[in-house]
Structures are given as structure tokens and as C-alpha cells.
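Why run this: before we spend reagent on co-expression, it is cheaper to look at a predicted model of the complex and decide which construct boundaries make sense. The entries below are exactly what would go into the expression plan.
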Amino acid sequence: LDATRDRHFRLTAQKGKTDFTGLGGGETWGFNQSFLGPTLRLPAGASTQAQIDNTLSEKISVHWHGMLIPGEVDGGPHQTIEPGTTWFPELDLTQPPATLWYHSHVHGDTGRQVQRGLAGVIHVDDGRDDARGLPISYGVDDLTLVLQDRRFDRQGRIDYGLSMPDQMMGFMGNVILVNGQLGTQAVVPRGIVRLRLLNGSNARIYPLSFSDRREMHLIATDSGYLNQPVAIESLVIAPGERYEVLVDFSGGEAGTLVSSANPNQMMGGMMGGASTAGGSFVVVPFGVDARLPARILEIPADLGGVLPDGEARSVNTRQITLDMPMGMGMMMRRSNDRFAINGQSFDMGRIDLSLSKGATEIWQVSSNMMMHPFHVHGVRFQVLAENGKKPSIQNSGWKDTVLVNGRVDILVSFEQTADRANPFMYHCHILEHEDGGMMAQFTVT
Ligand code: C2O
Ligand code: CU
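The model came back. C-alpha cells follow.
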């Protein structure tokens, strides 16, 4: 992935052709390139002017996932960019450094457009990572890894034909792309390496670890740094989530990042479709090259992240349930039995919640039948509890997307405004669920 670093940037959504497999390939979409988009490195505490040109023959949108900006520049389903037109949002970034991403968000078409390639990564950078003792050389010791699964047909074209199980479970590929390539390998210096992981898959959840069980040191969750690195052996990353870890390669030993099977196996894998992963598979093998400059040799003790305060103030509490259709049989017979939130399938014309600016709420989010990554636009939140227990380490920092398996309670403050014409979304980030109606919208005024 190329990186741009500027106070203004331009993305052109365009058609291209990519041959991933050597079998010929086919049409793919990207921003400024044939598949995916450049990594945007944007300064924290400053405003950046964006220009997005849509040269495709259908409408798209560009949602800045994780950005704390007002509804009118959020890039959700109400801010579509018609074919042949240009959008000029100004992105005023007041938030702390974090790894975010951008992707299309046209209601009903998000899954297909993201599969085609309309996605990219954003680094919000305050210029102080060097002082934090963190790796800062993009592509050398600071690696951005976009995890996406795909299926290819016999000509090597991306196959996004959705079977009934794909509609229900979300699309599951049988091969993994890392940064838009098959068989991606990394070569790193003999030192501490930072991995910025994004799960940009439509539906697959990756339980990640190193095959030799070496430690990873978690430094950041979706919305920014922890106050200190925390050693972990495994990390579950769900669609839409970002995690940053440091990995110690100072011993010079190669390592392999692997994933075990997607834990969302409703009905005992019977509905797994073409999914390969009965067991674990390789995500990225890392080789060590001692000739590369190793700048950081120790895990820093302190990161200076300001964690949520953990305090449950007296605030309004709301129940949010993520509703699946009743079952496959029901789904085939009754097309109005849809994905929904609190019993209602998404409607562009209906505002589901009207909140006041500055309000703080507890949302008790419940999943049913399978795990759902729950995302809220325009905010960062604190996980208060997972199924009544203290949150896991990976949910201990600021988040904008959380995997719900049972019930998750989040504490969230609404600081960014969003009017009726440009409301914020909350939804499941399994894109087939989102496109199927497991989404709702709110205003903040
Ligand atoms: Cu990553 Cu509403 O989206
Ligand atoms: Cu879902």
C-alpha cells in the first residue's frame, strides 16, 4: 500500500483489472489504483480537505470509519457520490492518533462495493510516536495489514455470488488477501515491529496468534492508544475492527501470524458453504532481515493513551437487539422477515433515535443466533461489560466496533452533530447483515 501524507488529498474511485491468482483475473475497483486505496496519513488536530471523484458508473460513498466528525461529512448512506461527480468533505480531526479506515457505504450495496475494492486505511498521526518509543517507518517497522477473504472463479475473478448461507452468515471467502494480495509475506528488521491490523472482510472473524505462540503487545484498539502495552497471545479481530500490536523480532527468528477458524459457525458448520477454514490458516509469514534498520529494540513502558474513566454515570440506558431472520426456511418463504435492529429493518427515511449533543448513554447490545460486530458512527465508546463480566483486554480501550456474543454494555457520549438529512448509523459490520437491514440511524442535535 502506498501512503500519502498531506493536508489535502484526492481519491479517484475507478475501475481496474487485477489478476490475483494468475488465472486471468477481472474487474476490480479501487481509489487511485485498481484495487483498494492508498493509506492516508492525516495529521491529528488539523483539518484536511478531501476530494473524492467517482469515475465509476454507479453511486458510491466514502465513509470515514472511526472518524469523530459531523454527520454531513461522515460519508454514510445519505452522502452518496453520483457517477461522474465529486465530493469535497472537510475532515477536521480533533481526535487522538489511531488507525481508522474508509470504505463505501451505499445502503444495500456496501458488501458488493467493498468486495470489489472500495476500501483503504487511515493513520491519524500526531507526530509523537517517535517520542513514545514506537516504530515509525511505514512499511519497514510500522506495517499496515488489511485482512480480507475472497472467493475466485475459474478465471480468477472475484466471485461475490451470495448463496443462502452467505446471506445468513455473511460472505465467507476461501482464500485470504493481505493488503490486496494473495500469499503476502513480510520481511522485517531485527527489532520491535508494529502491526496495524484491520479486518476489512465482509464477515469473517479472525482469531489471530503467532504459530510459535510468541507474545504480541497490544498498544491500540480502534480509537487509539492504551496507556501501556499489554502482552497477549491471541487476538480476535472482527469485521470493522482495528488493533495495533508490537511484535519482538529482535531475536532474529522468523514467525508466522495464523488465524484459527471463524468462530461464527452457526449450526455446527453445516452452513459453512465454500469456507476453507476447517482449521487454522496462515495470514502472514514474517522473515527477519538483519540488514534492515532496527530502530526500536524494546517495548515501551508507557504510551500515554488516556483510557476511558470506567465510571458509569447516571445516564440513560437503552437496549439494542441485533435481530436475525427466523431461520433459513423462514427466510426463503417470507421475504419480509429481514435482518433488523430492535425489530425494525433499516429504513433510510426513518430516524430511529434523536439524541442531544453531549448526552451520555449506556447501550446494552444483544446478539442473537451468531456473533455480530456492532459499530456506531461519530463516536468512540467504552466497553463496560461483556455478558456481565469485566471486558477482555482487547476491549479495554476506546472502541468504535465491538464483537457482540451475548450481551455487551457500552458507555458512549455523543459529541458530534448529525441532523435529519445526515444522520449517523449504528449497525452490524457483517456487511451482508448491514445490507439486509441490521442497521439504524440517529441524529445528534
Ligand atoms: Cu465501517 Cu457504518 O461502517
Ligand atoms: Cu450481524
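The two ends are 38 Å apart (CA to CA). The mean pLDDT is 92. Bring this page to Monday's planning discussion.
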